[in-house]
């Protein structure tokens, strides 16, 4: 017995020693590669790849969006042309105009160049919109140039001239659906 006030150090209890058998290695299962037919069946899943073309109603919806953007861009181009032209003569404003006398020539030239670049950019955009309208008429609008799947509707509503998904545009690599579709094309060859 221990005395009162004396420190008592208890021994830790030791339980019965259980003999543990060494862990058995987990069974290794050798997996054989699946046959190509099985892979093709998995890839053909319609939910993953989606439809091959937009319906006529969807194409009409996109056509309306494109025509509205085209009209807006052409109006902006007309405004830019008016700002670049002299109202009295109908010619493009040059450095020798009266307007140039009131401003520094460098600033005036920079403003003209900026206006020209905006007009050039607008012209390119109108050409891209015209190409998109031609693809709608050919019923190939919204089909990705890279993998042949449909570009998501949200992307086409935001960027009606898009010809690839956003992931391919940003990274140069197809999206997941595109990788599956391209793999399917390779196995079909």
Furnish the topology, listing elements before pairings:
Blueprint: H1 36-43, H2 46-49, H3 56-84, H4 98-102, H5 105-137, H6 153-158, H7 166-171, H8 176-188
Helix pairs in contact: 3-5
Structure overview:
Mean pLDDT is 75; it is low at 31-47. With 189 residues, this protein is mostly helical. The protein has eight helices and no strands.
Termini, distance in Å? 90 Å
Please estimate the helix content.
55-70%
Helix-and-strand structural type: mainly alpha
Averaged pLDDT: 75
Largest sheet: none
Poorly predicted sequence stretches spanning 5 or more consecutive residues: 31-47
**Any idea what the shape is?**
elongated
**How many alpha or pi helices?**
8
Report the β-strand fraction as a percent range.
Answer: under 5%
Comma- or semicolon-separated keywords:
189 residues; mainly alpha; 8 helices
Quick take:
The protein is mainly α. Helices cover 55% and strands 0% of the residues.
